[in-house]
Specification:
The chain is mainly α and 288 residues long. It is 81% helix and 0% strand.
Amino acid sequence: MKRGLRIWGRVAGCVATLAFLVWRLGAGPFLDGIRAVDARALAAAVGLAVLTTVCCAWRWRLVARGLGVGLSLPAAVAAYYRSLFLNVTLPGGVVGDVHRAVSHGRDVSDVGRALRAVAWERFAGQVVQAVLTVAVLLALPSPVRSSMPFVALGLAAAVLGVVLVARARAGRRRLLARRAWVGVALASVLVVAGHAVTFLIAARTAGATAPASQMLPLALLVMVVMVLPSVGGWGPREGAAAWAFGAAGLGAERGVATAVVYGVMVLAASLPGAIVLVLSWSRRSAHA
């Protein structure tokens, strides 16, 4: 019951955000974003998604192997594509990750460890994203640059606290070898870079002409908001882009159009996951 209320609450929040933007800016920016999408943008999104998905799958495989529930890279890539598609198309933004963890857990007869592997994998990616975001926002001009020293101190304290707690709970056991942590960090950096480049392409497709040095901080700001539970990112992403672009003097309307283009690109890039989902259903039905 409570879970259903949370899901519907997220849906209502996303709808309310979109309704507010339409009320303040009109439907024009949304329509402009949809009309701006072209084959080149979609092809770029699909290509970059191959890179980011393989990196995510590699990161997951490293963490899972460290917990003793390893899986092959091809299986990890297929499962991650399926997870992305479910996250983009279903409310909450985490349904695909839960499905990925439970499916893997059933395959290895240890759902608990599989769930922890996915949780640690996603958490590691978010930590790296946060660190990169703060570093870029400290270095380049943005609407929040004056606040970033305080955010950096808070982030450093939070990361240190997490490391100390993880070590205390692990005791003498290590979650991952040092080489594996390097791989997790490298994969996460590539994932963040791929998503940022996708956003920059979306901005150019939507007609933004500002230099990349001005657009990159805005992209990372919007990407931070996209971590929040939503319905395929819709709602919070458009609201954050409207604020960020408006505060940077680029126009809230351009921000909304960019977010819409990005949303369409992400949806197109996740479609291989639908194929994986159909194939897995077919195999299950054949063995039933």
